[in-house]
């Protein structure tokens, strides 16, 4: 009888750099067990923290690091955390996922059987340096002195950023999204950091809808990681639209 596989090797899209600057991209996962199922059903655990707890339990090794702790998992890029969730779901429950998307044309839920093995994952090539996300806005932000600011530079979010905004996700998802963007904002035109801190999420709310869409699209197109955007066709009204796979359903639907 063939021995059962206990650990599954995957390669992170970005990787974790330790305190000595060594990059760790190989990770070994084990399947989820009842302990992790209990975490999923605990309403007291916010989503960002839940991801940290799940990965902290099932991530056995990360490069040369044995049993990486929660602090290491929190410092992983969101792109790597999402990829690990995808692979954790695949090795635990398989590649078949039943997902629903709301049709913007007729309001009907469109059910799709997704093949998780076919999901696109964008990874950095060996030796490539991780770069920030640069966004050119069309309308931009005009400050109190009338100076326009049209260029944004964003870093990629990490697990610690997810955990910070996590309490907002259920009651105000848009504010959570803006708060996450604000934490990752490195430069906005020539605005000094003290003004960015003072404005808070208001500076993002003052952007036009077109610029906000450009900001989201830049992350979708430039950032490494799992591409959760799906092209959907509604069988009821024929509308074709773009949907986003809901990661929170990974361990609920099969």
Describe what this molecule looks like in 3D:
The chain has about 250 residues and is an alpha+beta fold. It folds into two domains: about 10-125 and about 235-250, no CATH class; about 135-225. About 35% of the residues lie in helices and about 30% in strands. The chain has nine helices and 13 strands. The chain has helices spanning about 35-40, 45-60, 70-75, 80-95, 160-165, 175-185, 195-200, 200-205, 210-220; strands at about 10-15, 25-30, 60, 65, 95-100, 110-115, 120, 135-140, 150-155, 185-190, 225, 230-235, 240-245. The strands form five sheets. It has a four-stranded antiparallel beta sheet with strand order 1-2-3-4. Strand 12 (about 230-235) and strand 13 (about 240-245) form a beta hairpin. Helix 2 packs across helix 4 (about 80-95), helix 2 (about 45-60) runs antiparallel to helix 5 and helix 5 runs antiparallel to helix 6 (about 175-185). The model has no long low-confidence stretch (mean pLDDT about 90).
List keywords for this structure.
alpha+beta, 4-stranded antiparallel β-sheet, 13 strands, 3-stranded antiparallel β-sheet, 254 residues
